[in-house]
């Protein structure tokens, strides 16, 4: 990653936006009396049901037939009626000309994608009576005839692009920036950037995917993809899946920003993933309709918004002054309020103009969240390169290949710039009998003892992405980890088992003294305070070891 590549990506984005506006210019320069009849004309007046005039939007829970008289039409035009239907039959002057076909997905019949009726027209139909027998979908939020117009397929696409220009621009920007964020964050995560940056890059990774999925949902809501390419059922399913993933990604971003790794938070994350997978599987096998997944998405929306509101409130409550985290909490609150309003408009009327509010909401959310992430990361590529080189030469212990004391204190500085995570634990480790090994077997054996200890510590703790391990000097090691009490105890127990089984050229089995202290049990402590508590407990553990072994600690002789 370099400045040249970044300039090319920005240039590509700029070009896409310019081309988009050129396209919009052609749309708006199209003449109403064009010979090619590319414009759409409204056709939602003078429809009747049982001889009575109706107005759009129109809903009816029973099967019904609507009738109207067609104006002058041409052979390249279509009649489009927007409604969520189960079944329809179209007749011209009493003669049936069109009937819907069963929609099938993965071999199972489904009503997903049944949201527009397209009736091909012919010049012979001009002035004729058109009758459409309809059975509407029985949806929780209702289903109704919302719009009708006569147009060509290209004219329909132009009309939608004109009326959804903002959505099209947001789609391009969100997609390009989202892809860029995913690539950059994945690059630095795989590079194993140090902890605080790694967590920030994880937040950027989720934010990138959130941008991509949101962009996909936004453009599908404009109906442009299936107007241009067809596959109404496929794009409808894609819209539903995007809508399902958005609350999960929203929650994941907030978790990484607030450093939430409690078992409850993990359980909620896993619960949302499992619900999405089960729901999609049940829809694939035809046990439930794909449309029902919208209701599942709304449940996930409520869960995600509640948890993020809780994180935001907790953050504001703990902070004593306004800062970046307070700002992000307030932005989250604004996002949730606008999202709830848009969801209310959708529930009241599924064809309501709720998309505009969601677009504005997403713009606010992504700008604020990603802005905070970029601020935390300080995406300076040259600085990152210098950091990686410094880490190799200055932050690594030559013998054990773990971080050294300088590296550890750098991590402490990063932590103390923010509120310490609730589950941050400091673990102090000291190797037993190092002096005895050096004096009686030799310094090569002593080095092997330290290397073996380092390997076992790394094997027990490095699988956690929130772990920092360093050799502080001599036979002393220190660990910082964000994890619950049970996880910390399990990892310490596994480490001791590995140490007991370790075998080398000189050493057969290793014992260590361990002490730990966590923020949750010492809420007002600094990391320095935690280290003192952990050291005290570690020395108590060491004293107990020598007492039980009957060995004088200083002379390493039997007492």
Automatic annotation (TrEMBL):
<feature type="transmembrane region" description="Helical">
    <location>
        <begin position="294"/>
        <end position="313"/>
    </location>
</feature>
<dbReference type="Pfam" id="PF00990">
    <property type="entry name" value="GGDEF"/>
</dbReference>
<feature type="transmembrane region" description="Helical">
    <location>
        <begin position="165"/>
        <end position="189"/>
    </location>
</feature>
<keyword id="KW-0812">Transmembrane</keyword>
<keyword id="KW-0472">Membrane</keyword>
<feature type="transmembrane region" description="Helical">
    <location>
        <begin position="325"/>
        <end position="348"/>
    </location>
</feature>
<feature type="domain" description="GGDEF">
    <location>
        <begin position="422"/>
        <end position="559"/>
    </location>
</feature>
<feature type="transmembrane region" description="Helical">
    <location>
        <begin position="201"/>
        <end position="219"/>
    </location>
</feature>
<feature type="transmembrane region" description="Helical">
    <location>
        <begin position="225"/>
        <end position="250"/>
    </location>
</feature>
<dbReference type="InterPro" id="IPR029787">
    <property type="entry name" value="Nucleotide_cyclase"/>
</dbReference>
<protein>
    <submittedName>
        <fullName>GGDEF domain-containing protein</fullName>
    </submittedName>
</protein>
<keyword id="KW-1133">Transmembrane helix</keyword>
<feature type="transmembrane region" description="Helical">
    <location>
        <begin position="354"/>
        <end position="374"/>
    </location>
</feature>
<feature type="transmembrane region" description="Helical">
    <location>
        <begin position="270"/>
        <end position="288"/>
    </location>
</feature>
<dbReference type="InterPro" id="IPR043128">
    <property type="entry name" value="Rev_trsase/Diguanyl_cyclase"/>
</dbReference>
<dbReference type="InterPro" id="IPR000160">
    <property type="entry name" value="GGDEF_dom"/>
</dbReference>
<dbReference type="InterPro" id="IPR050469">
    <property type="entry name" value="Diguanylate_Cyclase"/>
</dbReference>
<dbReference type="GO" id="GO:0052621">
    <property type="term" value="F:diguanylate cyclase activity"/>
</dbReference>
């Amino acid at each position: 990653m370099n400045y040249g590549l970044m300039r090319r990506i920005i240039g590509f984005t700029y070009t896409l936006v310019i081309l988009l506006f050129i396209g919009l210019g052609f749309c708006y320069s199209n003449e109403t009396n064009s010979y090619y009849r590319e414009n759409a004309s409204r056709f939602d007046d003078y429809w009747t049901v049982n001889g009575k005039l109706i107005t759009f939007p129109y809903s009816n829970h029973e099967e019904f037939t609507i009738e109207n008289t067609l104006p002058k039409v041409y052979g390249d035009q279509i009649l489009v009626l927007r409604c969520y239907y189960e079944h329809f039959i179209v007749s011209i002057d009493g003669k049936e000309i069109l009937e819907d076909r069963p929609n099938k997905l993965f071999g199972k019949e489904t009503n997903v994608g049944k949201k527009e009726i397209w009736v091909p027209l012919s010049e012979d139909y001009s002035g004729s009576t058109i009758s459409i027998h309809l059975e509407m979908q029985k949806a929780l939020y209702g289903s109704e005839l919302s719009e009708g117009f006569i147009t060509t397929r290209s004219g329909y696409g132009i009309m939608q692009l004109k009326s959804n220009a903002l959505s099209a621009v947001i789609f391009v920007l969100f997609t390009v920036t989202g892809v860029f964020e995913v690539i950059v964050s994945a690059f630095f995560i795989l590079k194993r950037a140090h902890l605080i940056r790694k967590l920030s890059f994880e937040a950027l990774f989720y934010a990138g995917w959130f941008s991509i999925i949101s962009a996909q949902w936004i453009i599908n809501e404009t109906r442009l993809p299936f107007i241009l390419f067809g596959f109404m059922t496929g794009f409808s399913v894609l819209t539903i899946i995007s809508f399902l993933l958005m609350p999960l990604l929203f929650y994941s971003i907030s978790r990484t920003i607030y450093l939430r790794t409690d078992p409850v938070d993990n359980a909620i994350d896993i619960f949302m993933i499992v619900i999405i997978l089960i729901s999609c599987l049940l829809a694939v096998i035809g046990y439930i309709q794909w449309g029902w997944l919208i209701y599942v998405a709304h449940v996930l929306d409520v869960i995600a918004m509640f948890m993020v509101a809780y994180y935001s409130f907790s953050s504001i409550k703990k902070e004593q002054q306004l800062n970046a985290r307070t700002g992000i909490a307030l932005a989250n609150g604004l996002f949730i309020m606008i999202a709830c309003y848009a969801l209310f408009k959708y529930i009241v009327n599924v064809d309501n103009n709720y998309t505009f509010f969601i677009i504005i909401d997403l713009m606010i959310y992504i700008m604020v969240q990603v802005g905070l992430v970029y601020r935390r990361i300080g995406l300076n590529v040259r600085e990152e390169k210098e950091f990686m080189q410094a880490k190799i030469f200055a932050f690594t212990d030559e013998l054990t290949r773990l971080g050294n004391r300088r590296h550890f204190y750098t991590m402490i500085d990063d932590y103390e710039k923010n509120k310490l995570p609730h589950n941050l634990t400091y673990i102090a480790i000291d190797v037993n009998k190092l002096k005895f090994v050096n004096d009686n077997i030799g310094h090569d054996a002593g080095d092997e003892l330290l290397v073996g200890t380092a390997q076992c510590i790394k094997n027990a703790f490095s699988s956690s992405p929130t772990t920092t391990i360093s050799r502080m000097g001599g036979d002393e090691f220190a660990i910082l980890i964000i994890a619950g009490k049970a996880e910390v105890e399990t990892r310490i127990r596994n480490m001791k088992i590995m140490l007991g089984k370790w075998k080398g050229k000189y050493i057969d089995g290793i014992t260590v003294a361990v002490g730990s202290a966590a923020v949750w049990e010492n809420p007002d402590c600094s990391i320095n305070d935690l280290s003192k508590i952990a050291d005290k407990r570690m020395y108590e553990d060491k004293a107990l070891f020598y007492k039980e072994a009957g060995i004088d600690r200083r002379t390493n002789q039997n007492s």
